[in-house]
Specification:
Two copies of one chain form a homodimer. Chain A is globular, with a radius of gyration of 20 Å. Chain A is of the alpha/beta class. Helix content of chain A is about 45%, strand content about 20%. Chain A has 13 helices and eleven strands. In chain A, a hairpin with a 2-residue loop joins strand 10 and strand 11. Chains A and B meet through helix 3, strand 7 and strand 8 of A and helix 3, strand 7 and strand 8 of B.
């Protein structure tokens, strides 16, 4: 099975990627000596699908399990949900020798990881990501957080999991829209580190409407692992986001977040907003660093094949996007840090992007894309 | 000036103890390269005394300071206060390159330290402890936490400060009761690691009613540093409380917490409850490990000199203490982990204490102490 190791000193861990791996969580927990008591945190969408088999696998490995099912949705990433989960865990008899199992997408992973980081000042946890975004991105690298009204992910911790089990089979039950928006993060990985992956992604994109072929299903662990590998190497270089290398992962995210914040929550999926953000970032990369038009086009073609939006929805006011983006980022002498590409696979953390650049890039998103 | 170093790998830091050191915080912050923006978190008791001079010292070192004053009291150690402080810090323009200055007693230190540990997933902070307990105990070792209804300190983090500045002059404005209860934690340090310090503590205790002599004031930094040294060596051995060594610091605390929880909040000070807890622990040490009566008596005499309670207040129901203690601790086959002394300076983490032992020890606390 593809296995990616994150070498982070005493925080090192393995990511196991294989079809059907969710059923083996008990085996991996025993091998990692995680103790005999687990709090399984999941959401109401995922629990009916995989909750009981995960529980059974843990129990078969002699682990006592309490199950905590939250409502699905980003609003659950809150301090009140943290307090509720910690209280439930105390009532269920957990203590500092327990561990947390996070089963679900990015919201569950961020929330359950943060609960694990603060419960009795930190207990171990494992990630069982079930969405594309969670498997290739959010479950890897130890970022945990909750939102507060003042901003998203403002309260959090770096807390690395003890292992991650990514089971691509869990992606097969996702809706086409969820599958595609998750793959937008794979496009990001390809753009910053491995352009030739774009060919594979376009190939997979073609199969989404009819369902994956057996051959594609068999290849998913390799594709997922390839993406995890990209993120893992970056996290190893910059575990706590201090050197700037980890910032490369924000490619497409600066304006993506501004666009997300300009719409009622959930109208655009995260990956869809990031797709728009990537188009804007490619535009600025061409303008400032001479990124070749052919390279820009290849990324846009892949996003188009994934039916990601590349033109700003009409109801979005460009001035709103600007305002939300500016609120999020710190301008230093009128300039912000912004990830650009010199070429595909060659990202740069620019400090030269001005307010006017951002405005121009947002305006660019109101123009049609021609890919012929 | 006495200087205690905690050697904790990349989390190492110094504790500076000297009379008047609060005025030098700007110098130390600059030396530690903590950046140019600080959030000063303090409470409404401490702010009028030291808030402005701390702010001026930081500003003189070219640090921009926002001031956040909370109501004094344990109830402020809450998640809602964390959210409020983080929101205020965002509104004041802080980001991941800011740092936190915790100025006050144990509540401010625990709360502000936790805020620093979660703000943008962790920013640096420094401790400026102004109570006895905070100077010799809670500011040292990186334990931060808030309370939730399900229990005290259930949500927290290990987050080491970048430095600690303990200024014994700030103790001179404490009420005699606050001074004495804080010194109960010094008695604990003496009992587990340095019995000869008990003589010094009895000497200082005698001066409390009339105010300290100049000679005593001049000796305070040494006495405080001696206590910090004890805690520092223990934290170095067991930073994350995994080996059991750090548990020695809980001497007197298991039943102390049970007693605290059996009374309306604030009726007994923490150190007062711990004094009762130490008497109970000494009783069990004599019973189980043959601690000599003379050694038990020396600790009790020191606590008596500090006017600490040694007999359970009449309104406390021993059954209540038992219940609160048992709710706090995990019984394993009917036994709990409990710190005993084989001799003064020689603690043992016993796993042999039963429910009946605890009941007997609580009953012992209802009997008078004879020290003649």
């Amino acid at each position: 099975m593809p296995n990616v190791t994150l070498s982070l000193g005493k925080n090192s861990y393995d990511v196991h990627v294989s079809n059907g791996s969710l059923d083996s969580v008990g085996f991996f927990a025993a091998r990692a000596r995680l103790g005999k008591r687990a709090a399984l945190i999941t959401d109401a969408h995922v629990y009916p699908q995989y909750g009981e088999s995960v529980r059974r696998s843990l129990e078969a490995a002699d682990v006592e399990v309490s199950v905590h099912v939250i409502t699905a949705g980003e609003e659950q990433k809150s301090l009140s949900q943290v307090e509720k989960l910690v209280s439930e865990m105390v009532a269920a008899g957990h203590n500092r020798s327990s561990f947390v199992v996070a089963l679900g997408g990015g919201v569950v992973g961020d929330l359950a990881g943060f609960v694990a980081s603060v419960f009795y000042r930190g207990i171990p946890y494992v990630q069982l990501p079930t969405s594309v975004l969670a498997q290739v991105d959010s479950s890897i690298g130890g970022k945990t957080a909750v939102n507060i009204p003042a901003g998203k992910n403002l309260i959090g911790a770096f807390h690395q999991p003890r292992f991650v089990l990514a089971d691509p089979i869990s992606l097969l039950t996702l809706s086409p829209r969820d599958l595609r928006e998750g793959m937008a993060e794979m496009v990001k990985h390809a753009a910053i580190r491995k352009p030739k992956m774009l060919v594979t992604l376009r190939h997979i994109a073609k199969e989404v409407p009819l369902g994956f072929s057996l051959r594609t299903i068999e290849s998913l662990p390799e594709v997922i692992a390839e993406n995890i590998e990209i993120k893992a190497r970056i996290v190893e270089e910059d575990e706590h986001e201090t050197s700037g290398v980890r910032a490369f992962l924000n490619f497409g995210h600066t304006l993506g977040h501004g666009i997300e914040a300009s719409l009622p929550y959930g109208q655009l999926r995260h990956g869809e907003a990031v797709s728009l953000g990537m188009r804007a970032a490619l535009f600025l990369s061409r303008k400032h660093l001479g990124l070749q038009a052919q390279e820009e086009r290849e990324v846009l073609e892949t996003l188009a094949a994934l039916q990601q939006p590349l033109v700003l929805p009409e109801e979005v006011d460009p001035a709103d996007v600007m305002e939300h983006t500016a609120a999020d980022k710190k301008f230093d002498h009128g300039k912000i840090r912004f990830v650009l590409l010199r070429a595909l696979g060659d990202p740069v953390l620019s400090t030269e992007i001005t307010r006017e650049d951002l405005q121009e890039a947002i305006a660019h998103l109101t123009t049609p894309v021609s890919l012929n």
